[in-house]
Amino acid sequence: MPRKLSSIAPDWWDYTTLDDEIIQTVARLTPDAMLKLSRPGFRVVFYDTLEEFYLAEALEYITAWRQSTTDNPVGICGPIGPTEQLPLVARLVNDLGLSIRSAHFWGMDEWYVDGREVPVTHPLSFERADRELCFNRIQQDLVMPNETLHFPKADLNRYIKSWDGVRCAVMQGGQGDIKHWAFNDPPRRDGIYKNDPPTPEEYRQLTTRVVQLHPLTIAQNARTSGGGNIAIVPTKALSVGPVETWKAEKVSIWHGGTHDNPFGQRLTTWMIANRIADASVPMSLLADHPQVQFNFYRSGIGRCEVEMH
After folding, report:
1. Partners of 35 in the beta sheet?
2. pTM over 0.90
3. pLDDT tens-place string over residues 84-96
4. Which of 33, 38, 283, 305 is the most exposed place for a label (fewest CB within 10 A)?
5. How far from 58 is each of 46, 63, 77, 170, 183, CA to CA, in Å?
6. How many domains, in total, are found in the chain?
7. pLDDT of 245-292, one tens digit each?
8. Domain for residue 35, yes or no?
């Protein structure tokens, strides 16, 4: 039986094409039931305060970078969305006097306009946010050189090669409304994927690349970063791929309740816990990664009950 058309964008794959039984099961999950979905290789963690939540996220940077040496460099791949952890990272590095000169950092993604990455002068630039909120705040004698700060560019070869010979201790991420990490969005529903999305094995072969963004991703970024002005949000981006993601020893996803909704947070938790990988829900492909941690701000999990506003 053919899969449903998306109720969001019929020319695309997304989570609304899943079987109704999955949707109904997920919507009934309570926070306590979510917490019990941990299994070997997948850990669910709750934080009771936002202060603890973002401090724990920032400490993942510190833990990774403290392992780095000149002979054995170590890095972390980090998101824009959330961003609240970034000033905390800078403060911790400075206050601890932690030299991260040998460490690496990979930005996950960047907007792509007119055949190139947006410049750091662009108001939505992710590189600009990383630098202004974190790296420009770290003391010059402690911070890593520009050569080990890696941001995706239109010429992707240098970024892709930067993953060779460096251990990525952790890749962090948020979860978007379309259930992506970075900009690993579900694909359009055309060509060989007209009737079925790519298999998990096919999707996992994708490396850092230019991606066309699902309409829901564009709307979300307008909501979270552009004051609702959809017209200013680019429709394409550069995104770290599954190939690089599987080079990371650990994938750590941070659900603060801002970037995705109560249903979405439940959906990917349940799919990964039950090892159900489907490219219409890209985050679910992490079911096959050896070490994944989902971090939740308990008050941000919300409810899936109908409320009229």
Report:
1. none
2. yes
3. 999 999 999 999 9
4. 305
5. 16, 9, 12, 12, 22
6. 1
7. 999 999 999 999 888 899 999 999 999 999 999 999 999 999 999 999
8. no
